[in-house]
């Protein structure tokens, strides 16, 4: 029960009752303040632990990446290849010779992981093990004028030891410069294709075109050829 004090108001001749705060109320206020402080502390500790865990995962991933050119390739393909241990390759066009389409893995953002290799003599990607693979390729064409109609082709083929011959896996055809004029007409055209195939160990994959002289080597990273094990 709260205590009371009687105070005599001299000027008005009245008696004023002053109620003192209850010790019980003070107790609940202290508990509320302590609970609030504990809640803030718990949230702070949790946030610090999360930041530390995130930093640890970043360090672990950086150890996995190593120092190859593929370190600069972001995205899920590289992460999946490194963590799963499955073969993966991403080659880009070499701009050294514009008269033919040559693939390279010596520039960013190329990728060659887990047994995949590029045979530079045959200009092909070599499959290291039997299984399902997603094969993809994109070619980017460019010309400053339209002097004659063109049919651009993009072929993905596979030389298989089982058949002893080269087999066509994918083929795309696009027409450009259908309306020929004497005026210069700048044009760009890209052809992308990809699909899943059952490949055997030692199979060689190739991506070709009938007009390599029209490839846009100023954007060579947009001309690519890749394989991902499923």
UniProtKB/TrEMBL annotation:
Alphabetical list of CDD domains matching this protein: TNF
Main localization, broad class: membrane
GO terms under biological process: extrinsic apoptotic signaling pathway via death domain receptors; immune response; positive regulation of canonical NF-kappaB signal transduction; positive regulation of extrinsic apoptotic signaling pathway; positive regulation of transcription by RNA polymerase II; regulation of developmental process; regulation of multicellular organismal process; regulation of secretion
Localization, UniProt: Cell membrane; Secreted
TM ranges: 28-49
Protein's UniProt keywords contain Kinase: no
Keyword match Nucleus: no
Keywords recorded for this protein, A-Z: Cell membrane, Cytokine, Disulfide bond, Lipoprotein, Membrane, Myristate, Secreted, Signal-anchor, Transmembrane, Transmembrane helix
Stored InterPro entries: TNF, TNF_alpha, TNF_CS, TNF_dom, Tumour_necrosis_fac-like_dom
One Pfam match: TNF
Any one GO CC term of the record: plasma membrane
UniProt membrane topology term: Single-pass type II membrane protein
Stretches assigned to the THD domain: 87-230
Molecular function as annotated in GO: cytokine activity; tumor necrosis factor receptor binding
Family: Belongs to the tumor necrosis factor family.
PANTHER family: TUMOR NECROSIS FACTOR (PTHR11471:SF23), TUMOR NECROSIS FACTOR FAMILY MEMBER (PTHR11471)
Function per UniProt: The TNF intracellular domain (ICD) form induces IL12 production in dendritic cells.
Record's protein name: Tumor necrosis factor
């Amino acid at each position: 029960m709260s205590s009371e004090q009687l105070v005599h108001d001299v000027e008005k001749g009245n008696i004023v009752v002053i109620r003192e705060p209850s010790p019980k109320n003070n107790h609940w206020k202290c508990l509320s303040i302590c609970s609030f402080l504990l809640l803030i502390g718990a949230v702070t500790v949790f946030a610090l632990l999360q930041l530390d865990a995130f930093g640890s995962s970043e360090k672990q991933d950086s150890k996995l990446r190593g120092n190859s050119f593929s370190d600069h390739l972001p995205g899920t393909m590289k992460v999946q290849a490194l963590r799963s241990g499955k073969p993966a390759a991403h080659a880009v066009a070499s701009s050294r010779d514009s008269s033919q389409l040559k693939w390279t893995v010596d520039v960013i953002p190329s990728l060659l992981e887990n047994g995949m290799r590029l045979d530079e003599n045959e200009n092909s990607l070599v499959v290291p093990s039997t299984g399902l693979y997603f094969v993809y390729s994109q070619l980017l064409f460019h010309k400053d004028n339209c002097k004659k109609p063109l049919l651009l082709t993009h072929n993905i083929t596979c030389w298989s030891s089982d058949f002893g011959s080269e087999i066509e896996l994918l083929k795309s055809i696009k027409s450009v410069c259908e309306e020929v004029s004497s005026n210069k007409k700048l044009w760009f055209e890209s052809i992308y294709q990809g699909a899943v195939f059952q490949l055997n160990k030692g199979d060689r994959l190739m991506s070709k075109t009938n007009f390599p002289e029209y490839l846009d080597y100023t954007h060579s990273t947009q001309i690519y050829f890749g394989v991902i094990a499923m």
